[in-house]
Design a protein that fits this description.
The chain is an all-alpha fold and about 230 residues long. The chain has a domain at about 5-165. The protein is built from eight helices and no strands. α4 crosses α5 (about 115-125) and α6 (about 130-180) packs across α7 (about 195-215).
Length: about 230
């Protein structure tokens, strides 16, 4: 007799998916789950393409380099997406109140400034609990955003310091090989940088030293030439 898992697998092959409207609604959410957390981040009424562009912008700006950094950047994007949703929900509460007030007014006259102020006050009075909950939710998300951003900045700072240290070590080893007339492959010493990156570092540091030396003589070409002649 076939085991239960085998039977389930065979039945799944013949499944055509949910057929009723009730069944299709949960199924439609599958397309709205992003790969890192498997949580529904984008609501069915929101634009998945806009969310993707929004998230990609965070990754482009913050330039995560490893899995942990990418996860933190994704978390930042998702948190900010929710924060934007909070602002939109609050705005929608007031817009709904204005629309209801206009429908009840039974007048073709445009709303005055006083009408707008009263409608806003009425909207706040009628939705105090909802606005309060939104505010609490927004504060929690803001705290989460800033905490995550601090974690990301700390990790990236440590990584960049370590990358620079390793780049300097590789540059020193490259110079030794040049003195010996030998080629240099950073990977032989366990470095992940390229010779181009090493050359850029050496060139940058040389120009910085040159600029610092020129600053000692107020960037005066005559003084700099005199100093070079004395040191020759």
């Amino acid at each position: 007799m076939s085991s239960s898992p085998q039977i389930n697998a065979l039945n799944a092959q013949h499944s055509t998916g949910p057929r009723t409207d009730v069944g299709k609604k949960p199924s439609s959410l599958n397309a709205l789950r992003h790969g890192l957390t498997s949580q529904v981040i984008v609501l069915p009424t929101e634009d998945l393409a806009a969310y993707t562009v929004f998230t990609n912008g965070f990754h482009d700006d913050l330039q995560p380099k490893n899995l942990i950094e990418k996860q933190l950047v994704q978390s930042l994007a998702d948190t900010q997406w929710r924060l934007n949703r909070c602002a939109a929900l609050e705005s929608n509460l007031y817009s709904l109140a204005f629309a209801e007030a206009e429908a009840e007014a039974d007048s073709d006259e445009p709303a005055t400034g006083l009408d707008t102020a009263l409608n806003m006050a009425r909207a706040f009075r009628n939705n105090t609990d909802a606005i309060r909950v939104l505010g609490m939710h927004e504060q929690r998300l803001q705290r989460a955003f800033h905490k995550t951003l601090q974690q990301l900045q700390s990790l990236q700072s440590q990584r960049k310091i370590e990358e620079h240290r390793q780049l300097q070590q590789a540059a020193a080893l490259q110079q030794v090989n040049k003195l010996k007339g030998l080629p240099y492959n950073p990977a032989d010493d366990g470095f992940v940088c390229s010779n181009r990156e090493i050359d850029d570092l050496v060139s940058s540091e040389a120009r910085i030293l040159e600029a610092q030396g020129a600053a000692l003589y107020d960037f005066d070409p005559v003084k700099i030439a005199a100093a070079q002649a004395l040191s020759a």
